[in-house]
Queue: 3 jobs
Job 1
Amino acid sequence: MVIVLSLTVAVGVASGVERDLASVGLPALPATARVRPDILLVTIDALRADHLSSYGYERLTSTAIDAFARNAVRFDNAIAQAPYTKASVASIMTGLYPSSHKTVTASVPFPETMTGHPTTAAIVTDVLPASVTTLAEGLHDAGYRTLGYTANPFLSEAFGFAQGFDLFRFYPGPDFAGAERLVADALEAVHRVKPAVPLFVWVHLMEPHSPYVPPPWTAGRFEATMGAPQPIAGQVPIPAWLLPGTPRDRRLYVAAYDDEIAAADIAFDTLLRGFCDGRSRRPQAIVVTADHGEEFLDHGGWEHGSNLNDELIRVPLVIKGPTLRAGVIHAQVQLVDILPTLFEFAGARLPPIAGHSLLGVARGASTSTPALSEIVGSQYALRDQAFKLIDFDDGRVQLFDLGRDPLEHRDIATGNAAQVRRMRGVLNRMLQQALQMGRTIHNERVPLDPIVTERLRSLGYATQH
């Protein structure tokens, strides 16, 4: 377990834990460790894969990510372990399924959480267990300097996500901090780390999370390509926080969401250039992904957290690293595979996890693995290359033929009992293994103040985000 020193930073600047990057030395590393690559992990909140132009989207939303992907390994079928931030990022950071790491609830008082210092005791929520080895902890133990930046309140120090970071900053405030702010601070810290020291940087960007209020430099970029009106039926409710005025035209929500993707793309470009230029003396491994997607009435709902359809769990994943040749991988992979992949790059010791390194697949192995996604206690999905099964806690089951019905509009469970039975068997075995792996991981909880839940709702948070 890495012990981090607390540092109180003025609200409005940042809040988190920090060690002096210039004065605190690391243990001497063996000569082989000095060629370990610097690692940059960029997670973009609520970014569905099919809204990136490199994944076939008709709008040019992501020129920087597209350019990066052309010189990297792009995974066509990367599956998140949960359709909301807290559980999904916990899976990225631990290599474990939600049923193992148990960081799954998010009934959180938003304004107090946004300060980074929740204190009062009424609502109780779980946190990332201290007993789990995180991505940052494993890399720190392998000799890396570790830096983390996030504007999502569910990824703050209070909820365990600062574990293993020498410097960890959550940005408090009434709204989400803009990507340009996180990137500027991250690059300033990157340039303070000596080139001889291997570096791990994690930046979690909130664009394009709701509300869909893009910055001035991308606002309105896609209005001209909205096409014919898409009126929303009068009986369909629309969360008031998504767009000012709550218009009943679906195009406006999608266009503003795409504007925000473009803003995140610009921030990624700045971060990538600054990171690569500032650390040009070392090899580099860079990963870009998302925690989950976003829904625009694809299956009758908005935002995320409510179902396990592909618009919420199929996310972008692009990896660039030493010895990897650029290309597109169609084999299915999972976000739990990110930790072992980065540990292999770093030569770090691997703890017991569910994921597997993607370096073999990226170098040409064609193996696809079944993917497990969860809304713990409610829905469980098993996805393979051909089919997806969604199993509900009330006994219902859905089956989709992904080859013939990639948008999952036709449930074929009725009449395909053998396929349902087979996939349910695999799903149950994977869940049993996840529960067994989590048997020694004790659920940890913190008390929170419930009086500010209205602010939580006003930004689109209900119980699982």
Note: Residues 1-13, 22-34, 108-114, 448-460 have pLDDT under 50 and may be disordered.
Job 2
Amino acid sequence: MSHATETRRLASVPDLEARLVTWLARHSIDALRISLGLVFLGFGVLKFVPGLSPAESLAEDTLRVMTLGILPAQIGLVGVAALETTIGILLLTGRGMRLALVLLALELVGILSPLVLLPGQMFRGPLAPTLAGQYVLKDVIVAAAGMVVAAKTLGARLVVDRDPRQPNEGARS
């Protein structure tokens, strides 16, 4: 390969990176919002069908503790299903985003509450989560994703703050 060809090939890598960074800044948060919407819609719809959701018993146990046993399990489960489905639809459409964020915040309290309300079901030991515990702990990522979507909804922007073709002095390889 000639020196000129090698130079052109190397010069195109930073240009591709610059285009990628710009594309990611423009589309990644919407992709995150849509993926959250799909997850909530899918899990919400499952809860409408008795016995179909693998989280059904965990949701029922959590609701029983949260409502002091006053709310019948099936009514509570339909309520959770409706809430999750609504959140999913709002996130997918991008409409009613402020309402979606309020509902998401309420849902996250319920989703993460088994860590406090049902520790015996969540952990076998101090650092040994059960399968149910792992299921709930992964929702910390859902909470963080919701925070990113909330930031954009409330006016924050993901922008490219430097020319990606220039070396990043603080970056680690």
Note: The CA atoms of residues 50 and 56 lie 8 Å apart.
Job 3
Amino acid sequence: MRRAFGSNRAEVETWETNPVGNVANLVTGGVYRVRGTATDAGATRPWSLVLKACRDPGQAQHHDVRASNYWKREFLAFNTGLLADLPPGVRAPLCYGTEERAAEDAWLWLEDLTDAYGIPWPLERYALAARHAGQFNGAYLAGRPIPDVPWLSLRAGLSYRDVLGPNLERVQALGDHPLVRREWPDATLLARSMRLWQEREAFYAALARLPQTLCHMDFFRLNVFAVRSPHGDDETVAVDWASLGTAAVGEELAPLVYMSPVLAGEHADRSRELGETCFEGYLAGLRDAGWPGDARLARLGYTAGVISFGGAYSPVAIDKPAVIAQVERAWGPLGDVLDRWAAVRPYMLELADEARELMQKA
């Protein structure tokens, strides 16, 4: 509290704890806002911070330090000071303290952020966030060493291969189920998505050949805040660094463009405009950071990044009714989420076609 309040002499007067949002991640034990009032030199003022619990769910996949969902990665990133020493561009929230509570539980006491825009962001703010992401990624492409720690994720996008793809293969067998029709109103798009899944290894190989950089790897609207610094500068602050690791130039941009419309419900009907605006901003950020590389490499990383989001969600909901409740707590009515997937998929598949052309020329 004293660190958040800004005084080593402040004393807690009142405090309360409330959950923040709805957690849809197995390695997060909960996120809470802790706030109250404190007295300092006779004056009473409010204070607030966020407590995030990193939790070991006890499964082997969450113990692999290079996998995208290693349970302790975010705690280590804050505890070692790595996230306090990022290059210009994206920053992490201020960390006021870290605690290892038990072998399977680690706590982070973090800055309580307030977004300057609320929902939705205008497209120009997305472009600025993309530019900040380009500055962050570009610094490591332009010579800044990637941190030499063993627990960074390695090609986190590969994890979606085992989660989303098999469900896509089941869509045709589920036929006219209402949820399938909601997600796939156009049979042509389903056929093109099946082709993308069948060619997945070529996309993964193309991403692996590109210049690699340090990435947040879950950089989308629900995890990024538009913040104004004390000096009035626009900052992009990212939370949830649990997938932090190395990936291809351009790949960081994929979740910002694909997941923001679907999970945050912003600009699903303008996905092409959103994507192209963000790519221009991202490329400008790479140049800001001093990366002189071929823009086509960044474009390939962005377009090939669709492979991480080309799966199907309706089969999971059909088989596991509990998933519906989880999705709706986190992202709204399932039908609306599937409608948004249907809205963004044509642009995603256009980018997949572009990636194929770029791979032939690379």
Note: The chain has two domains: 2-110, 123-361.
